[in-house]
């Protein structure tokens, strides 16, 4: 009889443990709706400051494409690396709830996306809205590989300020006439700081 009671209590403990384990598991944030984007990291020729040079961009755009979403949306971004350099994309300011492996810093949360390879980022904008920033997170490619991430409030939820009359995205950047990969190698070899930028840019354009 004692063995029967002991067996029964053991099974009861196992069932209770299984119940607690199952219900304590974190719930993957699925998102209200899913938005898909296709990023192709490519080189292109630009003409700025009376000089032509090759830069690395996304979808041959400088700055790169704007990613739009609403609070609670799930974002799936396939990144194909058609450049000769390793690359990743970091989603600056996104909290990455249960998706930290899609945050983007190379050698920290993921291996770099090698030339000719692809990687798909998948995350949900959990309780976040506003304007964010995405950029490359390998070496100094972020000098030209960057863009905006705009997350609107949920339907029916007002802005935390007066509704804007117009909306414009403004991204400030730096631009060097030197090849950015070669410049990085020179700076690392010297042990000093980077030289001043050849120009500052607004949405990829230098001043007049």
TrEMBL record:
UniProt GO molecular function: copper ion binding; oxidoreductase activity
Residues annotated as domain Plastocyanin-like: 41-154
Signal sequence annotation: 1-24
InterPro entries noted in UniProt: Cu-oxidase-like_N, Cu-oxidase_fam, Cupredoxin, CuRO_1_LCC
Alphabetic keyword roster: Signal
Lineage: superkingdom: Eukaryota
Matching Pfam families: Cu-oxidase_3
Family to which this protein belongs: Belongs to the multicopper oxidase family.
PANTHER family hit by this protein: LACCASE-6, MULTI-COPPER OXIDASE
Protein name: LACCASE-6
The organism's taxonomic lineage, starting at the top: Eukaryota, Viridiplantae, Streptophyta, Embryophyta, Tracheophyta
